[in-house]
Design goal:
The protein is mostly helical. About 60% of the residues lie in helices and about 10% in strands. The strands form two sheets. Strands 1-5-4 form a three-stranded antiparallel β-sheet. A two-stranded antiparallel sheet has the order 2-3.
């Protein structure tokens, strides 16, 4: 008797409280693009906390003067744009690809990871975020798992490739638009490179198991875009 395998895609691989991540009983596969109320709630909370965390990271804290509240709204705008284009599109690409293969797939936040991200952004000006991941279940085959893993960083690479020429050739000397396009490109390129690392539960490990050639091409492309981005003055803040 063949058992359906549970497949987790997350920084923390096996969720600490499984009932938070998978519904009990028989799992009904939703139509591509469908969201549950719980998933929407987890997405909204994750994006809200990550936006605050990155905004505070972009607004350094001074023990004597406190936060630079004048720059905080600007940081919130940049952070929200970065979270939407990088985090949201990354996770939704995983989700839609999994649904394409007839799997149950929903995003679930990782509360401890969100708390750590917020504290780091608030106090250190550095954010390491493990906010959660798209969980999918339904007996995915190896190539399906690889393509689901590939979808996230590929979305980031595409966004970085679109915004890079806009930043370098169009908005480079325009402070506001140059800052936005440069920041979008930088965050997406960085997230792609990070998730393609072949360690632990990151996307790179799953892609290599499926097709090492695809992984090498994606890694080279993402590193190239990232290096080109940081070789310019990324953004003025």
């Amino acid at each position: 008797m063949n058992e359906k395998r549970k497949i987790y895609t997350s920084f923390h691989d096996i969720p600490p409280r499984e009932y938070m991540y998978f519904p009990k009983g028989t799992i009904e596969v939703s139509k591509p693009g469908a969201f549950s109320r719980l998933e929407i709630k987890h997405l909204v909370i994750s994006m809200f906390i990550l936006t605050l965390a990155f905004a505070f990271a972009l607004t350094p804290f001074n023990l004597r003067l406190g936060f630079n509240l004048y720059n905080l709204p600007y940081g919130l705008i940049l952070s929200f744009i970065a979270i939407t284009t990088a985090f949201f599109f990354h996770e939704m690409s995983h989700k839609f690809m999994a649904q394409k293969y007839g799997l149950w797939a929903e995003y679930r936040m990782f509360p401890q990871g969100l708390l750590i991200a917020f504290i780091l952004g608030l106090l250190s000006g550095f954010v390491f975020a493990a906010p959660g991941a798209v969980m999918f279940q339904g007996g995915a085959r190896n190539y399906e798992t690889g393509r689901i893993a590939m979808a996230g960083p590929m979305a980031n690479i595409i966004i970085a490739l679109i915004t890079l020429p806009l930043y370098v050739f169009v908005f480079y000397e325009t402070e506001f638009l140059g800052t936005i396009t440069g920041f979008i490109c930088y965050i997406n390129a960085f997230l792609a490179v990070f998730n393609l690392l072949p360690f632990g539960p990151l996307d790179g490990t799953k892609i290599i198991r499926w097709n090492a050639t695809v992984w090498i091409i994606m890694l080279i492309l993402s590193i190239t875009v990232f290096m080109v981005t940081i070789s310019n003055t990324i953004f003025v803040y």
